[in-house]
């Protein structure tokens, strides 16, 4: 105690004789988890020109710096701004303009929401998203007859929660020119008794989507701003948007440059030969707010719609394996072209067959090149014999998928294959890092639910009591890193964000409870009190 006293006296005398450094802000009296390599704690830091210039104690910051503003956190917890490593940011914004079908408990409820939406909006083409037949008492794909009856002249196309199936009414089908004889590949067009049911799975969805009216520029801008508002209020300071067009990326850049969009975006370009040629020739596009250096590729569909490509048939549909939605020859060609550039390849792979195919393809084209940071998005069902293939490939996973799917996933894949499903700890042990996200709007946006699902492996009803396959739970330290510094690493951004360290952007959040120590069951009750980007309070 005596030594501390003399240290404080010495520090006071020393800094009193030294001119203080002018800064914009100092944060003091906080409980800070820096998320650096050692997960070091601190209680204060200084900010100048949007970046952190020092980290230490409250006494040190006050003696050393002359701030324009002192932010006394009064003991509250501060962590780096959360990064969602896989989401659909623009899609979230567009969803605000469509009928919301999340949480529906029956097809009748889906129909009623569509009816109510049209009474209010009276649009010429009804779109929406969020239905999930696995949440209904009758867990079967719906059919279009009721929609045909109620909306004979208004096209309707409503997408399943995972984005891998569409229910279209006859008006939408006629507009698209689809019949029972229309050729397709890479998915399914479901028929019953020789007639279309209106269900389109994976690649054939494009037949319907091609005729959906494009949003106006004003609607696109509103979508981006709506999504930003939702994300910032929930503590997200960077989002990885998994699949954007060249035009949308250019719109985002223009809004950011004009100061009308402030959230940081790591944009995965929707893959095509045209996009690969354009972006690889142009090179990496990097500003403080935008990072374009990756392509989003789809290997297969989703487990919920039985579109995930499996090595063996589905346990609940014995003649069905799912399918690759992109032909293998195209996947290999994309990989070779991307490997010759500085861009990453980030591939959606759900089923164990899709994961194996992509991991082997990656290995072959990369030829053991280090630090390319190519990613497998979801890595949902992995054959136990294939985990070792992740030794040089980043697993980008979404913890709330495990707690949403656990009610029915084992029925899809059986008791053995489920052991290699949602295996986040095993993936972490193989690669050394995991990037954590949500896949919103498929799941809820809140990163606190991501944290809870990763640690507790339970849903908000505290089910199951002992956690779903708890051996694959992550520790709180691992989870925090997966949502901050490891997510930044997966974007090649770990030198500029993801932790509260000198030289990095002052992106951080203030929360009302200590996320690292609070009782596990209370994690979802934590409130995001303040969000900062570049040291500026944005919430």
Structural notes for this entry:
This protein is α/β, with parallel strands linked by helices. It folds into 3 domains: 2-75, Roll (Urease, subunit C, domain 1), CATH 2.30.40.10; 83-87 and 216-537, Metal-dependent hydrolases (TIM Barrel), CATH 3.20.20.140; 98-209, Diaminopimelate Epimerase, Chain A, domain 1 (Roll), CATH 3.10.310.70. Helix content is 32%, strand content 24%. The protein contains 18 helices and 25 strands. The strands form 4 sheets. Strands 8, 15, 16, 17, 18, 19, 20, 21 and 22 form a 9-stranded mixed β-sheet that branches. Helix 5 links the parallel strand 10 (126-131) and strand 11. The radius of gyration is 25 Å and the shape is globular. 51% of the residues are buried.
Class of the largest domain, according to the CATH hierarchy? Alpha Beta
CATH topology (fold) name of the largest domain: TIM Barrel
What portion of residues is helical? 25-40%
Biggest sheet layout: 9 strands, mixed
Strand content: 15-25%
- Count, helices: 18
The geometry reads as globular
CATH superfamily caption of the largest domain = Metal-dependent hydrolases
* Rg from Cα: 25 Å
Q: Class by helix and strand content? A: alpha/beta
State the total count of DSSP E strands.
Answer: 25
CATH architecture call of the largest domain: Alpha-Beta Barrel
Question: What distance separates the N and C termini?
Answer: 40 Å
Give the rounded overall mean pLDDT. 95
Quaternary status: single chain
Count of spatially separate domains = 3
Low-confidence stretches: none
